[in-house]
Amino acid sequence: QSVLTQPPSVSGAPGQTVTISCTGSSSNIGAGYDVNWYQHFPGTAPKLLIKGNTNRPSGVPDRFSGSKSGTSASLAITGLQGEDEADYYCQSYDNSASANWVFGGGTKLTVL
Amino acid sequence: QGQLQQSGPGLVRPSQTLSLTCAISGDSVSTNSASWNWIRQSPSRGLEWLGRIYYRSNWYNNYADSVKSRITINPDTAKNQFSLQLESVTPEDTAVYYCAWVKSTDYDAFDVWGQGTMVTVSS
Predict the structure, then answer these.
(1) Which residues of A touch B98 (CB under 8 A)?
(2) Which residues pair with B5 in a beta bridge?
(3) Helix (H) or strand (E) holding A26
(4) Do A39 and A51 contact (CB within 8 A), yes or no?
(5) Tell me: the pLDDT tens digits for A4-20?
């Protein structure tokens, strides 16, 4: 059971916009800790997509954007492309968990 | 940008010690702004942060409670790498293990990841 909750799967057609939610609590996202997002193709190294809630590292397309409000955060992907089909994970810090850096359970994005 | 290259065995016997190494390119393991982490992923536990080391004039570490009694992460300044040792492993420790680099204190994000090592604990 992950500390941060994500939907197991989302889907969208090419060109559409999808949003992936990440729900936490008062000991992590709600406490003001930043949320980071990762893109993961199985068998490869995860890639940092969004850091500090809204910031894209160099090289990440602006089709990817992050937001945060209260105890939740979201990753939006606009202009969906086939190459976006991957697993997406949110991550934050938790001041009560036994492992302070915590992840969501991951969301599988399917491009229809 | 920097890279991390992992090495180590993919099969460990129960009760033995799991040992992995992560070689760093693009920075020094002794840099004052970074931290060096180990994370694992399994179907039952998802992504699980295990621990980290960092240098701030001295070496410090933090470990997850779930493995605190069994884990050691060490720097190797001569080879510019860091290692993971997990003692007394059981089949529950079967997972893909990643090393990960937090580049700065501005954001607590794992900027760079190693390629992952599938470790199976089995006799």
Answers:
(1) 45-46
(2) B23
(3) none
(4) no
(5) 999 999 999 999 999 99
| Token couple for B19 | 């040992």
DSSP 8-state secondary structure symbol assigned to residue A30: G
What is the 3-class SS of B60-120, one letter each residue? EEEECCCCCCCEEEEEECCCCEEEEEECCCCHHHCEEEEEEEECCCCCCCCCEECCCEEEE
User: Is B37 buried (19+), middle (13-18) or exposed (0-12) by CB count in 10 A?
Assistant: buried
Rounded distance between C-alpha atoms, residue A89 and residue A37, angstroms: 6
Strands B117-121 and B11-12: parallel
Alpha carbon of B105: minimum distance to chain A alpha carbons (Å): 11
Residue B11 touches chain A, beta carbons under 8 Å: no
CA A53 to chain centre: 9
Tens of pLDDT, residues B10-20? 999 999 999 99
| pLDDT for the residue numbered A99 | 67
> Residue A49: enclosing H or E segment and its boundaries?
strand A47-50
Q: Which amino acid is at B98?
A: Y
Q: Which residue has the tokens 């295990």?
A: B50
Residue in chain B lying closest to A35 (CA): B109
